[in-house]
């Protein structure tokens, strides 16, 4: 017997049942830390993703005979912050025509621009995925639109078959061909880029900064408190309000600490900056960074060079540097296209945006080609 339901919290959803949708064993589940029950529950329970912050959870659950067979992380949004696929221009166009764009329905991991499954289902149950997607599209009728951010390519094909429009954006990822150490990575770069990175790293060392990698139980409450202080300071410097609170980070450390890698920058025995990386299978994801004092070039060292060095040392396949940032190209991260899927209830706006996305996709393809022409790596 098939049963669909909507829940506003994961508190009453069995964690093992939820995580089983990510894979049959713990190794498979570990590839998707941001979709694990503990991560999503921490976001909701800490209040970071809640109705108060404009992220009202409306998770879709599909049960077969009482057993959780599929799920979809959905949120009713009253704004477009924390998404990393920007639709502010769409909202503005709606407003200029006197039409409400918000609330909208969003399928995503809040504040996390990482590609992964969005139609969570056991094994290859595409029938369950289609049921979820149909239910989400039906639910979206009560709002202006449905947006699914950073799904897999296979899922995006299914979404397009169901009438959703696809959008392309660009991120920057580092891929490991089997480098033995950081010097081997540098050896693959052009002379100019190799020289530039060595100069940047030397200036940080000459400033008296050293680094430690902390993982799992090595990251204690004082480290998380310092990290959160740095995180808040960085947002304040940009005139923004941080999305995440200390309660979330402490929950992350307590429940998913084995996935967390903290880069701690110290000078004269005192911490001055830190960055947070998340391990998922053989991939490393850059998330947040901050500093309590300005040290030139420290950002590049904390966020990119230390991450690449860690990935090499631990035999990881890739390092994802997050959304946007052409400066990452010159530090060994290459452009990668990501996808999102969109459905809009208003027919005229849907047609106009469909036309726009066709032009945008061509522009993105040209942009990626241009970036690849400026590769930091030596010619093969």
Quickly list its features.
single chain, 380 residues, alpha+beta, Aminopeptidase, eleven-stranded mixed sheet, four-stranded antiparallel sheet, 15 strands, globular
Q: State the helical fraction.
A: 25-40%
The pLDDT mean sits at 96
CATH topology of the largest domain: Aminopeptidase
Following the backbone from N to C, one meets helices and strands in this order, namely EHHHEEEEHEEHEHEHHEHHEEEHEEH
* Shape call: globular
Residue fraction in strands: 25-35%
The CATH homologous superfamily of the largest domain is called Gcn5-related N-acetyltransferase (GNAT)
- How far apart the termini lie comes to 57 Å
List the helices and strands and how they pair.
Layout: E1 2-7, H1 15-20, H2 26-30, H3 37-45, E2 55-57, E3 59-64, E4 67-72, E5 74-77, H4 88-96, E6 104-107, E7 120-121, H5 126-140, E8 145-149, H6 153-161, E9 165-175, H7 182-187, H8 191-206, E10 209-215, H9 221-237, H10 246-256, E11 260-267, E12 270-280, E13 283-291, H11 298-313, E14 318-323, E15 334-344, H12 347-373
Parallel strand pairs: 6-8, 13-14
Antiparallel strand pairs: 1-3, 2-5, 3-4, 4-7, 5-6, 8-15, 9-14, 9-15, 10-11, 11-12, 12-13
Helix pairs in contact: 3-10, 9-10
């Amino acid at each position: 017997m098939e049963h669909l339901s909507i829940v506003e919290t994961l508190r009453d959803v069995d964690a093992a049942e939820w995580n089983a949708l990510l894979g049959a064993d713990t190794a498979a589940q570990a590839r998707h830390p941001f979709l694990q029950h503990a991560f999503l529950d921490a976001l909701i329970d800490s209040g970071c993703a809640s109705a108060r912050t404009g992220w009202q959870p409306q998770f879709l659950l599909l049960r077969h005979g009482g057993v959780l067979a599929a799920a979809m992380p959905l949120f009713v949004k009253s704004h477009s912050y924390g998404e990393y696929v920007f639709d502010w221009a769409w909202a503005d166009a709606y407003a200029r025509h006197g039409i409400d764009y918000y609330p909208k329905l969003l399928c995503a991991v809040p504040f996390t621009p990482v590609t992964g499954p969005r139609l969570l289902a056991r094994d290859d149950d595409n029938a369950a995925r289609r049921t979820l997607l149909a239910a989400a599209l039906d639910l979206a009728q009560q709002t202006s639109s449905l947006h699914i951010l950073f799904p897999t390519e296979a899922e995006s094909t299914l979404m397009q078959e169901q009438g959703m429009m696809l959008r392309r954006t660009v991120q920057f990822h580092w891929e490991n061909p089997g480098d033995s150490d950081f010097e081997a990575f540098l050896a693959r770069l052009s002379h100019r880029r190799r020289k530039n990175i060595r100069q940047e790293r030397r200036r940080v060392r000459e400033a008296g900064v050293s680094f430690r990698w902390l993982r799992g139980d090595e990251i204690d409450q004082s480290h998380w408190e310092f990290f959160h202080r740095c995180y808040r300071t960085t947002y304040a410097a940009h005139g923004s309000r941080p999305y995440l609170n200390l309660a979330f980070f402490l929950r992350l450390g307590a429940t998913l600490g084995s996935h967390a890698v903290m880069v701690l920058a110290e000078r004269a025995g005192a911490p001055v900056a830190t960055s947070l990386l998340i391990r998922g299978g053989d991939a490393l994801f850059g998330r947040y960074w901050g500093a309590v004092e300005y040290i030139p070039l420290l950002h590049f060292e904390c966020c990119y060079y230390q991450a690449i060095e860690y990935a090499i040392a631990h035999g990881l396949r890739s390092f994802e540097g997050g959304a946007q940032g052409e400066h990452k190209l010159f530090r060994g991260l290459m452009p990668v296209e990501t996808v999102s899927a969109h459905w809009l209830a208003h027919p005229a706006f849907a047609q106009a945006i469909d036309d726009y996305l066709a032009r945008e996709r061509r522009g993105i393809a040209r942009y990626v080609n241009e970036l690849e022409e400026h590769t930091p790596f030596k010619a093969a």
